[in-house]
Write a structure and sequence with these properties.
The chain is 23% helix and 32% strand. With 506 residues, it is an alpha+beta fold. The chain folds into three domains: 132 residues, PH-domain like (Roll), CATH 2.30.29; 126 residues, Probable inorganic polyphosphate/atp-NAD kinase, domain 1 (Rossmann fold); 226 residues, Tumour Suppressor Smad4. The structure holds adenosine-5'-triphosphate. Keywords: ATP-binding, Kinase, Nucleotide-binding, Transferase.
Length: 506
């Protein structure tokens, strides 16, 4: 029996069938003369004797590709099933078929239905769809935004080749627009009809989702918009952190499949108050060596990804430090407690965001419970004044770019940011070894890595004329700012419904 390479089990229904169900006659139908289709534990089981009746299994052209079902028997993981339809005389099954390493493309199987099975077919089709989609919304309405200049400039082609055929096969409704200028997605977010779509799909890096979120935040009914519309991305930029965290891959077709099967997941968002502005952040804020290595090396773009490493090493060798005053509303500061919190959250059943949002209709952004950066620091915040910080990095997601799981304990909806502080005087060798520890998943436990879970913090740079502060990879002015988390204000489409696709801290 040939086996389609499995991407993932349908998450919430994988355990609803047992092996003994495999041959439960309720889940088996006969099609053509000699094909049986059974619903197994986590896959559609197809058993066919092709030679006996060459017309039973047909080759169908789908989205320009001819599928060839040369093998008489195969298994298709439920996760890969995109659509199933039965007419009076035919049954059609569309699924994501593995082409190359991580590239999938839709393919169709079509069978002739036997009159004798007619009564069974309708409920069999619905059962297969339930197993294929679990709690994921079917036929999502997607507002697709393409940044034609994202990453290396291939977003338009990547979408057309790897994502559009999958969305079409899965019966998603698509409304596509290409951005024409920087800031365009802010306007598109601000003016979107929140009842017309289920998700905004950015074919871009992390810059476009940041703009869309901040456009939605400008709406008078911002909370309603952010709970109704999920924000997600097809990885077409350089960093693509959102895709790594939600789907654990940089493959456009696999992400398209994960969006089709995506579970509506409450996502914490942070308000950044600076001067008299308030912006939303979904990913991270950084001050010190990380912000400088990223934003301060723009003139070295010709180096490609190496510019970050180069910028990092130059500053590391100089042992640069970044004086500042920091204050935090600490929720947890012991690594043991953070690990326990992570495990307890992981083991809980996900609470998915309902389609259509919930009870936020008409509501604007939540008020700032800790005030703005111009208010007094709340009396119960912990204060630290330091001249020697090398890196202050706050994460709302775990993975910052491929292989950089910097915040392993980060959770989408726990109402806390993970804040990491590392002293800049710990020594060059120690700093370098930390870089490799991130890749090996050993970073969290390094004693010199201070980790706190906070629900708010303030940072005031000191004794420097100018410098870099990064919010979601974008530069903001070099002046004091305050961050406050809003639990579950946003919505994402994730694979698990409550976790990032990152190795946890334990
Ligand atoms: N048509 C356009 N012309 C110029 N800039 C655009 C256009 N559309 C979007 N942008 C801008 O491109 C910026 C970067 O977008 P994006 O994150 O998609 O790509 P990227 O190349 O991966 O960037 P990054 O280096 O931030 O990862 C966004 O901030 C957005 O304002």
């Amino acid at each position: 029996m040939s086996t389609e390479s499995s991407t993932q089990k349908s998450p919430l229904l994988a355990d609803t069938l047992t092996d003994s169900d495999n041959f439960n006659s309720n889940f088996v139908i006969k099609v053509g003369k000699n094909v049986t289709l059974a619903l197994g534990a986590d896959a559609l089981l197809i058993h066919a004797i092709v030679d006996a009746d060459p017309k039973v299994v047909k080759n169908i052209q789908c989205c320009g590709l001819w599928t060839t079902e040369s093998s008489p028997s195969q298994e298709i993981p439920f996760y890969n099933i995109l659509a199933v339809e039965a007419s009076e005389s035919t049954l059609s099954i569309k699924y994501a078929k593995l082409l190359l390493k991580e590239d999938y493309s839709p393919s169709t199987l079509q069978y002739i239905l036997n009159g004798g099975e007619a009564t069974k077919v309708e409920s069999w089709v619905e059962r297969l769809l339930e197993l294929a989609y679990g709690d994921a919304q079917r036929n999502k309405r997607l507002r697709v935004l393409i940044n034609p200049y994202g990453g290396k400039g291939y977003a338009t082609d990547l979408y057309a080749q790897y994502a559009a055929p999958m969305f079409e096969a899965a019966g998603c409704k698509i409304d596509l627009e290409t951005t024409t200028h920087s800031g365009h997605a802010i306007d598109l977010g601000e003016n979107i009809d929140v009842d017309a779509y289920d998700a905004v799909v950015c074919c871009s890096g992390d810059g476009l989702p940041y703009e869309v979120l901040n456009g939605l935040a400008k709406k008078p009914n911002a909370s309603e918009a952010l709970t109704k519309l999920a924000i997600t991305m097809l990885p077409c930029g350089s960093g693509n952190a959102l895709a790594w965290n939600l789907y654990g891959t940089n493959s456009v077709s696999l992400v398209a499949l994960a969006i089709i099967k995506g579970l509506r997941t409450p996502l914490d968002l942070a308000s950044i108050s600076q001067g008299n502005t308030r912006t939303l952040s979904f990913l991270s804020q950084s001050y010190g060596i990380i912000a400088e290595s990223d934003l301060g090396t723009d003139h070295l773009r010709w180096m490609g990804a190496a510019r970050f490493t180069y910028g990092f090493l130059v500053r590391l060798i100089a042992q640069k430090t970044y004086p500042c005053d920091v204050a935090f509303k600490v929720e947890m500061d012991q690594k043991k407690d953070i690990k326990e919190h992570y495990l307890a959250y992981k083991n809980k059943k996900p609470e998915l965001r309902p389609v259509g949002g919930g009870d936020q209709v008409g509501k604007g952004l939540p008020p700032l419970k800790y005030g703005t950066v111009d208010d007094e620091v709340p009396s119960d915040w912990e204060k630290v004044s330091t001249d020697t910080i090398g890196n202050l990095y706050a994460g709302n997601m775990a993975i910052m770019s491929a292989d950089v799981n910097f915040f392993p304990a980060s959770l989408p909806g726990d109402g806390m940011m993970d804040l990491v502080m590392i002293d800049g005087t710990i020594g060059r060798m120690k700093s370098l070894s930390m870089m490799t520890a991130v890749e090996k998943g050993q970073f969290f436990d390094i004693p010199e890595v201070e980790v706190r879970k906070v629900s708010g913090y303030r940072l005031i740079p000191r004794n420097q004329g100018d410098g870099y502060i990064s919010v979601d990879g974008e530069r903001i002015p070099f002046s004091p700012f305050q961050v406050e988390i809003h639990q579950g204000l946003g919505t994402a489409l994730s694979k698990s419904g409550h976790l990032y696709e990152a190795r946890g801290p334990c």
